[in-house]
Fold this sequence. Notes:
2 domains; Alpha/beta knot; homodimer; Helicase, Ruva Protein, domain 3; disordered N terminus; seven-stranded parallel sheet; 49% helix; 11 helices
Amino acid sequence: MVEDYRTHPNLAKIKIVLVETSHPGNIGAVARAMKNMGLSQLVLVNPKEFPSQVASVRASGAADVLNDAQVVASLDDAIADCQVVVGASARMRKVSWPQLDVRQTAQLAMETVSADAQAQVAILFGREDSGLSNAEMDKCHYLAHIPTNPTYSSLNIAAAVQVFVYEFLMATDIKSVHQAEGYRHQLASAEQLEGFYDHLYQALQDIAFLDPSKNARFMRRMRRLFNRSQLDVKEIDILRGILTAAQRQSNQLKTLTQDRD
Amino acid sequence: MVEDYRTHPNLAKIKIVLVETSHPGNIGAVARAMKNMGLSQLVLVNPKEFPSQVASVRASGAADVLNDAQVVASLDDAIADCQVVVGASARMRKVSWPQLDVRQTAQLAMETVSADAQAQVAILFGREDSGLSNAEMDKCHYLAHIPTNPTYSSLNIAAAVQVFVYEFLMATDIKSVHQAEGYRHQLASAEQLEGFYDHLYQALQDIAFLDPSKNARFMRRMRRLFNRSQLDVKEIDILRGILTAAQRQSNQLKTLTQDRD
């Protein structure tokens, strides 16, 4: 984390994650846009070419952000310690996913990081040509789109990041509504959420609820529902406790049924 | 004026004026940013190199904006037909000038062009290295600055234009087109929610999870969790389906256990 320039502490909790960026010039321009708006955490998932002289030139005075960029091999590594994961994408009318515009995203992010001092928020930007894959979008709690001219909506990736980081800076005075309520535990990380979803998936099979042929769509629906509510670690514990109780009966039932055979 | 793509009529009344831009790549990136946000009027005052292949490449799908750009020899020619002239500049604390941020500028511009069908607004962007001269700022009715990290406030010119044109689009009613969400079913009524909570309470007892002495506090926690996510009617159906599946096993287990006694 870059600490050598003055910035709002909440901006330091926002990660900009670039997935398989092709052009190093774009990575440099993203670093510059980030530093201009006071952000410092840049994560590169499998960049095609990095480090790169072209990136450094485009970064201009943001060499520190570029030098401190974290390079990782998988998206999971990039977001494991993040409580809210947002995928930036062109608006898709047919995808049923919670969609936010940039201003709403910035508000959500600032509410999240001010509610929980440990919380971090990741904003994912996909490949220049093909964006994020479906599997990558499945890791997202929200999709965020930039309002655009409907007939020409494809922004350069650095321009897209510029709009997001500008809105983040504009939103820095937003406080969490939960802060006053003071009832929440630490928000669950993406890793803890995945653990819950795996457990749920298994438990739904154990209690003979889930039709495996419909799993992908069904689990996506469950993710949407629980991601919307921003589970905290205590709630994850409770929900998994309920699943375990249901599974315990399911095992007992299985044992008894086998006994009878 | 470019008319071949759908845009908000008020955006067509905003001129982006680039004064003595050095790098043709920046001109191309500005054209792209403008078209992305539905603007069409680009005016170049004494560009160093234009037309340019580099500009065309960076403009990507915004060749029409670039081709229709007006090249003029003086700033006066660029702004002669404009009612409001705003100079984009780094924030200058010692200059006594009406200063706006980008959002205020967009609001002012949209108010101006919707109040008067003939009105046009010019936003001036200076040279990459030295900005606008004092004589050029004297032609401005307002100065506008982009809020930034105070220790690194120098945006690339195309990035600066991107932030302005984004705010212009956000200030039109065009975004209302995007507002229809469409992915949610009808939100559950309070009565449907109560039905779900009753069902949950019973099922948690059936699967031997719930300690009755802690019911009130526990159920309050469950209510907070699910109320936060604003369940829709379809989600209520699914959640109750899961509860029913768990209860079915619980009943089978009870029957089998009684058989053995």
